[in-house]
Amino acid sequence: MGDHDPGELLTVGKITGCYGIKGWVKVHSYTDPQENFLKYGGWVIRRREGPGPIDFDAGKRHGKGLVAHIRGVDDRTTAESYQGLEVAVPAGSLPALEEGDFYWHQLEGLEVWCGTDDGDVLLGTVDYLIETGANDVLVVKASARSIDERERLIPYLPGDVVRRVDLEAGRIEVDWFPDE
């Protein structure tokens, strides 16, 4: 589970519209900081008929997002055909993180356990994460073996709420009361 498959594709952003008339597009980047999107290379566009390569030969910060130029696209009409599509990169091309840091996609699907006086209790599995500005939040959905059917929003605060992330075991241990 630890090292991800280099062939696995991870979505890093979405093309939300056109910018100007010369093949530039607006990009909503899912990376933090946003500019990291431009550093990856090896981009893949997710189309209905399957993923295909796309290359950005220029890009910059613009307002709250990014604008980028698609190589070989020099008119607005062609650029418009990319609107609404997600952009991914091969997992293997992401830079290695510091010990104790994780990419969101590594946390999705992990079981969330909390220790109680009566032993460990399964709260559910991480469905996805949301960025709130202050900190990221784990959206934990009930699973077949979880204590109840509730969805929980648990702040992703390593060393505080999040005691341990164990990718090998597929679990996150949290300090969180089951009834919160």
UniProtKB/TrEMBL annotation:
GO terms of biological process kind = ribosomal small subunit biogenesis; rRNA processing
Alphabetical UniProt keywords: Chaperone, Cytoplasm, Ribosome biogenesis, rRNA processing
Q: Which residues belong to any copy of the Ribosome maturation factor RimM PRC barrel domain?
A: 104-176
Any one Gene Ontology MF annotation carried by this entry is: ribosome binding
**Major subcellular site:** cytoplasm
| Domain of life the protein comes from | Bacteria
Stored InterPro entries: PRC_barrel-like_sf, PRC_RimM, RimM, RimM_N, RimM_N_sf, Transl_B-barrel_sf
Q: Which residues form the RimM N-terminal domain?
A: 11-90
Query: Where found, per UniProt?
Result: Cytoplasm
Under Pfam families, the record lists:
PRC_RimM (PF24986), RimM (PF01782)
Any one cellular component term from GO for this entry?
A: cytoplasm
Q: How does it assemble?
A: Binds ribosomal protein uS19.
Entry comment, domain topic:
The PRC barrel domain binds ribosomal protein uS19.
Q: Which family does it belong to?
A: Belongs to the RimM family.
The UniProt entry, under NCBIfam families, shows:
16S_RimM
**According to its UniProt entry, what is the function of this protein?**
An accessory protein needed during the final step in the assembly of 30S ribosomal subunit, possibly for assembly of the head region. Essential for efficient processing of 16S rRNA. May be needed both before and after RbfA during the maturation of 16S rRNA. It has affinity for free ribosomal 30S subunits but not for 70S ribosomes.
**What is the recorded name of this protein?**
Ribosome maturation factor RimM
